[in-house]
Design brief:
Structural class: alpha+beta
InterPro entries: Ntn_hydrolases_N (IPR029055), Proteasome_alpha (IPR050115), Proteasome_alpha-type (IPR023332), Proteasome_asu_arc (IPR019982), Proteasome_asu_N (IPR000426), Proteasome_sua/b (IPR001353)
CATH superfamily: Aminohydrolase, N-terminal nucleophile (Ntn) domain
Distance between the termini: 38 Å
Radius of gyration: 19 Å
GO molecular function, one term: threonine-type endopeptidase activity
Shape: globular
CATH topology: Glutamine Phosphoribosylpyrophosphate, subunit 1, domain 1
Order of helices and strands: HHEEEEHHEEEEHHEEH
Keywords: Cytoplasm, Hydrolase, Proteasome
CATH class: Alpha Beta
Pfam families: Proteasome (PF00227), Proteasome_A_N (PF10584)
Strand order of the largest sheet: 8-1-2-9-10
Protein name: Proteasome subunit alpha
Largest sheet: 5 strands, antiparallel
């Protein structure tokens, strides 16, 4: 019984390392991310593509209310997986950092700088008593000095830069697919296709235009733009990914919430 009590002390305390050097609460936060629906980022030669699975769990739910893709600044987009409320807090923080940089220095914030500001903020919640880690991972993509950049944030507060990545459910399988299919020098249109192909791997090879979101930031205009459903439908049809019928009410295990009672607890 005493050993079990000691184990629970390591388990519950965010500021306490276990004997083997682990922070269990951070690991549990990573598990919350895995329960969220998938998001994908692809870096192209002329821009960045963000795509997210945003299937509704009920036909009564408005698709526009499902928040998976966010504009952090004109030249920066963010995709999330994990707890929706945590994601919104970090998006608001990122937007404030971007605006402060414009006011203070008169220029757009760098993608790497913004990502590290976000991860510094996340990291503080891994060593402060009375708080918990953020149960969300982010893909931060944009244009910096004319070059596309793509980063990931982790619940531990660690930033990673990628050519292509996935977060959320089925991450390992989707990452394996990206490692096989990704090629350097992709155009922005090819990157959109690859991102949708990747999301389709965890959806039985089919996607609905209303159940997926796609955003691009191109080198030419450095403007965040979300693709309308008609354009997404056209790409899905061209790539043979268009779902035959609406499966919006299909509740798959990868879509499960950390809190089953909250329909919007995870994204």
């Amino acid at each position: 019984m005493q050993g079990q009590s000691q184990q629970q002390a390591y388990d519950r305390g965010i500021t306490i390392f276990s004997p083997d050097g682990r922070l269990y609460q951070v690991e549990y936060a990573r598990e919350a991310v895995k329960r969220g629906t998938a998001s994908v980022g692809v870096r192209a030669e002329d821009g960045v593509v963000l795509a997210a699975d945003k299937r509704a769990r009920s036909p009564l739910m408005e698709p526009e209310s499902i928040e998976k893709l966010h504009k952090a600044d004109d030249h920066v987009g963010v995709a999330s997986a994990g707890h929706v409320a945590d994601a919104r807090q970090l998006i608001d923080f990122a937007r404030r950092q971007a605006q402060v940089n414009r006011l203070r220095y008169g220029e757009a914030i760098g993608i790497e700088t913004l990502t590290k500001n976000i991860t510094d903020h996340i990291q503080q919640y891994t060593q402060v008593g009375g708080a918990r880690p953020f149960g969300v991972a982010l893909i931060v993509g944009g244009i910096e000095n004319g070059e596309p950049r793509l980063f990931e944030t982790d619940p531990s507060g660690t930033p990673y830069e990628w050519q292509a990545l996935s977060i959320g459910s089925d991450r390992s399988d989707l990452r394996d697919y990206l490692e096989t299919e990704y090629e350097e020098g992709l155009s922005i249109d090819e990157a959109v296709g690859l991102a949708l192909d990747t999301l389709a791997q965890s959806n039985d090879g089919e996607l609905s235009p209303d159940g997926v979101g796609v955003a691009t930031i191109t080198v030419d205009d450095e403007e965040y733009a979300e693709l309308p459903a008609d354009d997404i439908e056209e790409v899905l049809a061209d790539r043979d990914l268009l779902a035959g019928d609406d499966e919006a009410d299909d509740d798959e295990s990868g879509d499960a919430d950390a809190d089953a009672d909250e329909t919007d607890d995870e994204e």
